[in-house]
């Protein structure tokens, strides 16, 4: 019995270690791919004059679906049936949230748009607390506050309010938060992988953006995506952007499924800091002492968040393993030479044989 308990404990520790490596890999893939696509898209839109962000996103999702379909045909992963209505509404919601974020950027100043992105974290915490009964400790909340203050200092330069832009920002916050919470919830409740969920939802996301993208882009840029003259260099950057987007979309679902929507948003702000840093070093964007101070505060907040989350996860793991450890301790601590033990030795041997028989069955 004691050997079985120890083996079970070691197996659980091995699974925990494997899970942590998977999370680290997912986080690294998300950061690397997201920073890469931001740099690629910035060159495409700022330097090459291709401003159609929403339409480009629809192409990203179509290429993602085609890539996953090819992978599925090659038996690289197995599809799992998900209720059609659930996956359709989920896909449309995610597509709509992307459209609202792009509209928010178009109708607001850069500063107000950054405020919109920052508001996603506290709103997600609020929704998960109210509807999913999830508890966030004071330490976690403090680290998130520090992170938001840092990113705000580093990235917010101006705040210009207008009614339409404010409404669009609120809609963007709501749809983004709900979409990311559902990404995590669906994977866990229905026991589907990030790849399976992305494969089934990507066509709906692509479809809603493929239809609405040209309209949204024309509203924002006063240009028609179909009248644009595509040079070989622009086409090459579009293809590169779509290929990187496969990794971005996959890692997004992977990170949210393995961690939480809040952790994904924290990771998103790490990407913002990295993009600011890369913009300064590679693209020679203007950089001030305020940017440096903000990034340092944000990184410190992220470090605290990571540390507090790790500590809380360890405590949860220890509390879940406590009954197991208690059983092992009790078994080890049973006196072997007491009169009562010697008197009942035959009875215990009989019980041990019975237990072994039941375990085999």
TrEMBL record:
Basic and acidic residues bias locations: 347-361
InterPro entries, sorted: Sugar_P_trans_dom, TPT_transporter
Keyword Transmembrane helix: yes
Membrane topology summary: Multi-pass membrane protein
Region (Disordered): 327-361
Principal localisation: membrane
Pfam family, one: TPT
Chain segments annotated as transmembrane: 21-44, 50-70, 82-105, 144-161, 167-185, 235-256, 289-308
Entry annotated with the keyword Membrane: yes
Domain Sugar phosphate transporter, chain residue ranges per copy: 33-306
Localization per record: Membrane
GO cellular component: membrane
Keyword tags: Membrane, Transmembrane, Transmembrane helix
PANTHER family: SOLUTE CARRIER FAMILY 35
Protein known as: Sugar phosphate transporter domain-containing protein
């Amino acid at each position: 019995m004691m050997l079985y308990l120890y083996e079970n404990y070691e197996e659980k520790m091995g699974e925990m270690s494997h899970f942590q490596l998977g999370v680290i890999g997912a986080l690294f893939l998300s950061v690397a791919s997201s920073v890469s696509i931001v740099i690629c898209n910035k060159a495409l839109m700022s330097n090459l004059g291709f401003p159609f962000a929403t339409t480009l996103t629809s192409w990203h999702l179509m290429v993602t679906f085609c890539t996953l379909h090819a992978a599925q045909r090659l038996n690289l992963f197995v599809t799992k049936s998900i209720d059609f209505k659930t996956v359709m509404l989920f896909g449309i919601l995610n597509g709509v949230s992307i459209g609202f974020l792009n509209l928010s950027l178009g109708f607001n100043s850069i500063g107000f748009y950054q405020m919109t992105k920052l508001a996603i974290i506290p709103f997600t915490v609020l929704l998960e607390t109210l509807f999913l009964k999830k508890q966030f400790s004071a330490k976690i909340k403090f680290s998130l506050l520090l992170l938001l203050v840092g990113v705000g200092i580093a990235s917010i330069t101006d705040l210009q309010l207008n009614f339409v832009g404010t409404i669009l920002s609120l809609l963007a916050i709501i749809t983004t938060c709900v979409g990311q919470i559902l990404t995590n919830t669906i994977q866990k409740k229905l026991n589907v992988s990030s790849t399976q969920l992305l494969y089934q939802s990507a066509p709906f996301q692509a479809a809603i953006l493929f239809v609405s993208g040209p309209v949204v882009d024309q509203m924002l840029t006063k240009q028609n995506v179909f009248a644009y003259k595509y040079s070989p260099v622009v086409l090459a950057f579009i293809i590169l952007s779509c290929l990187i987007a496969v990794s971005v979309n996959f890692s997004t679902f992977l990170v949210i499924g393995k961690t939480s929507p809040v952790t994904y948003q924290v990771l998103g702000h790490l990407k913002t800091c990295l993009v600011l840093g890369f913009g300064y070093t590679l693209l020679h964007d203007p950089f001030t002492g305020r940017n440096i101070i903000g990034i340092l505060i944000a990184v410190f907040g992220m470090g605290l968040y990571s540390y507090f989350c790790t500590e809380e996860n360890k405590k949860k793991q220890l509390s879940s393993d406590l009954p197991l450890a208690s059983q092992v301790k009790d078994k080890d601590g049973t006196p072997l030479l007491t009169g009562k033990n010697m008197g009942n030795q035959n009875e215990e041997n009989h019980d041990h044989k019975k237990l072994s028989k039941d375990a085999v069955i």
